[in-house]
């Protein structure tokens, strides 16, 4: 009897986290260029990275698109296996397991040309209107200003809408990484010369893939993804994905 139990335990321990060619259901949001977007090549740079990382460990993917907040809530209920890309917060960490960083970003303040705001002098934003999409996590310093009533937040569905709202003088500033901001301006049909990007930046943050702690295989899914991401990096395929994506945007 002990021999049978031992064999069963060993079988469980040796079983792979995910079977080869198993499918992982993913959800992400739109208008987060260049990282995610339905109109972007391959669904965006980080969509390609996530799918390529899972392909490294022979896991297939099914990707669906939902508004950011809805996709996160559906992932929380384990209706999807994972969502991406998100920054870490203590509050989210209570509900989700986080992967290793997919990428690291540094965020700037974007404002209309001629209206200069710097991260090094956030007090100048007092009384201004911030545009930041629903479901996106703000830098802590900006979040604190909103909680104190020093800054008003407007939350459209995507960052291109923020660029348009600034030009319409309905909002004053938005926050974005340089690549994300440039992508938003392009999607909004706006020229970079119409905006000012701060020279100073918020502290660097990383973007991750998230799995709900309620998911019955949460730790296994994160471990499998991390293994695939590590393989993608060590094989230099990650770097090549980035180069190919950027080259495709700029053309020959």
UniProtKB/TrEMBL annotation:
Solute-binding protein family 3/N-terminal domain ranges (all copies): 25-246
Alphabetic keyword roster: Signal
Signal peptide: 1-19
InterPro entries in UniProt: Solute-binding_3/MltF_N
Gene3D superfamilies to which the protein is assigned, alphabetical: Periplasmic binding protein-like II (3.40.190.10)
Keyword Transport: no
Superkingdom classification of source: Bacteria
Keyword Signal set for record: yes
Pfam name, any one: SBP_bac_3
Similarity field: Belongs to the bacterial solute-binding protein 3 family.
Xref: PANTHER family: ABC TRANSPORTER SUBSTRATE-BINDING PROTEIN, MEMBRANE-BOUND LYTIC MUREIN TRANSGLYCOSYLASE F
Name the UniProt record assigns to this protein: Transporter substrate-binding domain-containing protein
Organism name: Aquipseudomonas campi
Lineage per the UniProt record: Bacteria, Pseudomonadati, Pseudomonadota, Gammaproteobacteria, Pseudomonadales
């Amino acid at each position: 009897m002990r021999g049978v139990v031992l064999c069963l335990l060993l079988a469980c321990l040796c079983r792979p986290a995910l079977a080869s060619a198993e499918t992982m259901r993913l959800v992400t949001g739109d208008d987060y260029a260049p990282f995610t977007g339905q109109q972007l090549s391959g669904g965006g740079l980080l969509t390609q990275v996530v799918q390529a990382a899972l392909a490294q460990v022979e896991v297939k993917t099914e990707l669906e698109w939902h508004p950011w907040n809805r996709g996160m809530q559906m992932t929380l209920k384990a209706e999807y296996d994972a969502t991406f890309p998100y920054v870490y917060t203590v509050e989210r960490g209570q509900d989700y397991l986080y992967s290793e960083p997919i990428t690291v970003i540094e965020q700037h303040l974007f404002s209309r040309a001629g209206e200069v705001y710097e991260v090094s002098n956030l007090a100048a934003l007092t009384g201004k209107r911030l545009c930041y999409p629903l479901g996106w996590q703000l830098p802590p310093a900006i979040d604190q200003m909103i909680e104190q009533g020093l800054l008003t937040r407007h939350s459209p569905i995507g960052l291109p809408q923020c660029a348009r709202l600034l030009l319409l003088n309905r909002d004053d500033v938005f926050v974005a990484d340089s690549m994300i901001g440039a992508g938003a301006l392009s999607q909004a049909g706006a020229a970079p010369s119409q905006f000012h990007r701060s020279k100073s930046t918020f502290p660097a943050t990383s973007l991750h893939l998230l799995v709900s702690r309620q998911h019955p295989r949460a730790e296994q899914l994160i471990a499998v993804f991390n293994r695939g991401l590590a393989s993608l990096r060590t094989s230099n395929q990650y770097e090549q994905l980035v180069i190919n994506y950027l080259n495709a945007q700029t053309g020959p």
